Amino acid sequence: ELFAATIRMSGTTTATTISLLSLLLLLFYVVDCASGELFVLPTNWTTSPGSAGNLTINTDRGTFFPATNSTGSPIASNGSAFILGFLKPNNSNFILSIVINPSSARATTVWSLNPSRPIPGNCSLSLFGNRTIVLKDANGSVVGTLGGSGAKMLGMLENGNLQVYNTSTRLLAVARRVIWQSWDYPSDVLLPEQALRQGAALSDSTSGLYNLTMHAGGAVLYYSGQPYKTLPMTSNFSVAGAVQPCFSPSNLSAAGQSFAEYTGFSLELYYSGRASNSSASCSFLNSSTYLDSGDRNDSTTGILRLDADGNLRTYALMPPQPWNSNFSLDWRPERELVSPQQSCDLPSFCGSYGLCRSQQCSCPGVDSADHFDQISPSDVTAGCKPRNAINCTSGSQTAIHFIRIPAYDYFLNDLKPPENYTSNVTACESLCSASCACRAYFYRNFSGECFLVSGNIYTLKYAANDSYHAGIKVQNATTLVATQARSRSHLSVFSIIGITIGCLALVFAVFRCVWRPRAASSIADIKDEEDSEEDKDELEEEEFLKTLPGLPPRFTFAALRDATNGFSQKLGTGGFGTVFRGTLPDGTRVAVKKLETLRQGSRQFRAEVATIGSISHVNLVRLRGFCADSRHRLLVYELLPNGSLDRWLFEPRPSTSATKAQDQPSTGLLNWRQRHFVAVGTARGLAYLHEGCREPIMHLDIKPQNILLDDRFVAKLSDFGMSRLLGEGETTQVVTAVRGTPGYLAPEWIRYSVATKKCDVYSYGMVLLELVSGRRNFVPEAEDPRHCYFPAWAMLKAMEGQFNEVVDARLKLTETEMEEAERMTKVAFWCIQEQPNRRPCMVTVVKMLEGEAEVEAPPLWLVESERAPRFLEAYGYDQVACSVEDGSEPVSFCTRCGSEVSGPR
Predict the structure, then answer these.
(1) 37-185 has which fold?
(2) Which element (helix H / strand E) includes 342?
(3) I want to staple 471 with a disulfide (CB 3.0 to 4.6 A). Which of 366, 402, 554, 716 is the partner?
(4) Per-residue pLDDT tens for 135-160?
(5) What is the pLDDT of residue 586?
(6) DSSP readout, 583-624?
(7) Active site includes 701?
(8) Rounded to an integer, what distance in angstroms lies between the CA atom of residue 840 and that of residue 832?
(9) How far apart are CA 632 and CA 655, in angstroms?
């Protein structure tokens, strides 16, 4: 109609008409491209969970019920990439939210209106009398609103921004008639091109204790109101420098000229105002960049999220997986503000009073009578609690003392000024002792700074420097005992008599047991001697367990027998014992490894408890507990639903309903993205064991069967029965019991019984080659002699420049993926070099796989030598001088595998 009216306009020239027509066409174009889906709101409009019928969506945080417009259609963007609705994170509470990627196996929440006030029971979103969109609970009480009065239309834009307009005309909506938009009130996510304005904040979706606040001079991360990280636009990294930067006028905080924008590839901080005080002593940048992911494909969707652990991360959405409709990798982490090696910088990483060293958590004062206990027996990262609460009314400083912890610091101390400067640590301790509110002090020898912390104490981080001192205030146990003693009445005479009689009876019973004659045969004597040896082993093991900090909970044998239904559901059997499926009383599904006998399984039991009992990493399987009950030794692990890597790599076959075991995954072929994801995750787990732990750990049994996959196909190393701890300065160990798996054992371990971290690198290289090829590295019964020892044939193909022949023929790779496959193959060849000093360390392997380090052409030593390497004899190979024709050049190396080979097949 507007178009026709323009043509009928009188008194206008042709040029004017053409200009107006062009303007109108441009306006219509802007509406179609920018507005997304707009929905007019009738007076009686309302929507609630269930308005979309049976339509529900599984999300990363629970079940999602789409909200609907007046016609009953979901309120979604064009193409339905974003959708508005009601999130139900548990069985009773609702949160108004927006999700992205609703058609995937697991959609992701990107915005919430009421995360801190979830609504129990039913709820509704409706248009109130003054045309205000309100969220109400079942009683009609208002929980939240979408802007003020005058709402006439709702719009879900293609960028995920939900807007409310005070007009019902679509054309005018684009003309800035927006009265409210979700992007002005972010929750825990920033979408591409979304800005965090000065004064606004992101909050984590779990506890709400973490938030990222944008200030005039940069952004600051807070935990429970206390800062722990800054993202500044100046050289001043303090909180004061971010809140009131040196380059700004005094009234800048009211001007709102600073903001942070997530571009889809990085977080950019901008200051659009005038720098009034910029000088050499006050460096200033108009913009600062953080979390840069600029090497990602432009077509990949990205988000920035403040996660529940307080880390700020960017994620990229993985492409769809058409081969398996039940699987989605969701969002792949790209960049994170706090690296895994710096996890101790996060305030809640080890919980209240937790001591964090090399990403391992423990509680203070483990060797003293007043030590701290774990808050959760099953999770050392949940924090610690003092055995005796501080009692400020006890009257004097003698009622308390300090647990002194050398070389530890606190996250607050780099971001705020000290309370005082003292000449020594004793003076600093006295300041804390004199203040009832003070719970801990931190002192720095090199600067004299004395920091006092009141209120809650969070994670203490290891500073690796004796110039740092920490002291935690604790209540004297004797004071409490004396106080309690004075409050009790004295024991009655009858109680004393009863106790005395009981003691005499006990002494008499012990006397009879000690002096009772024994009439045992020689067989019984031998048995007693064996029992004595086992008792000695048990005592040694008990002493050993006492030396380990931060252990998971200890179960009784009866509890684990009940959890596994009498050990009735077997998952598998290994060299040291059998694994059973179980369920703990809290509903957690676990895998319980039952070691055979005390003498046989004791070494493996100690190795696994000592290795992973107190460490935590996303790529290591989690030890949930253990049992050392009489002669029973059991280990309790988290149960990973997708099983081990070999199930998904070597000739996978879809399970049928008739043959599929309970809770066993239906395996399919891993595509290239998944294989690369598993390869990098496994490498990170090994790099953490080698370089990230307080004491380096050698796994010594890396193979696909020991790489488990969770529901998102995150790789987790398992089975630490062969692992060894390396002491300070130790790089090698003599391990005479070579009990690894043929095909994955490093040559030097077989030859000389010498194990180093490079043994793990060798085993990982074999796994990496299997990920690329989909073939086992060692198949004695293979009909084709080239595949008996696959690495040799793979190196031959590499020598001929035919890397595509090495790649799993079942995969259809793009050009970019083929380049990644060639890179991975070269990395694998470097890892399986015969000489250990030629193999890279695992940290370098991670960098090579992620493209952050160059990968040079590796020596192809298996095919460059005239004869097979001698170490293959240990695998049962029979060296012969022959050649195998492969349609091109002859191979100067072959073996007899299983039976004698007469020629090519």
Answers:
(1) Agglutinin, subunit A (2.90.10)
(2) none
(3) 402
(4) 999 999 999 999 888 999 999 999 99
(5) 78
(6) E-TTS-EEEEEEES-HHHHHHHHHHHHHHHSSB--TTB--EE
(7) yes
(8) 10
(9) 35
Topology, domain 643-857 = Transferase(Phosphotransferase); domain 1 (1.10.510)
Q: How confident is the model at residue 743 (pLDDT cuts 50, 70, 90)?
A: confident
CB 460 within 8 A of CB 354: yes
Contact call for residues 409 and 461 (beta carbons, < 8 A): yes
Write a three-state SS string for 142-187.
EEEECCCCCCCEEEECCCCCEEEECCCCHHHHHCCCEEEEHHHCCC
Superfamily grouping for domain 344-483: Hepatocyte Growth Factor (3.50.4.10)
| Average pLDDT over all residues of the chain | 78
Here the tokens at position 638 are 């988290």
8 A C-beta contact, residue 331 and residue 60: no
Residue at token pair 């530890």: 408
The residue type of 257 is Q
Q: Delimit the domains of the chain by residue range.
A: 2-33, 37-185, 194-338, 344-483, 643-857
Q: Return the structure tokens found at 285.
A: 């940048």
The residue from 409, 701, 760, 808 that is catalytic is 701
* Nearest to 232, CA basis, from 248, 220, 246: 220
Tokens describing residue 301: 């969707």
The CATH number of the structural domain formed by 194-338 is 2.90.10
Q: Is 594 annotated as a binding residue?
A: yes
DSSP category for residue 284: B
Give phi and psi for 519, each to the nearest 5: -125, 75
SS3 call for 369 = coil
Predicted model pTM = 0.59
- Closest residue by Cα to residue 188 from 133, 262, 257, 256: 262
* Pairing between β-strand 62-66 and β-strand 57-59 as defined by DSSP bridges: antiparallel
Q: Report the alpha-carbon distance of residue 484 to residue 262 in Å, rounded.
A: 59
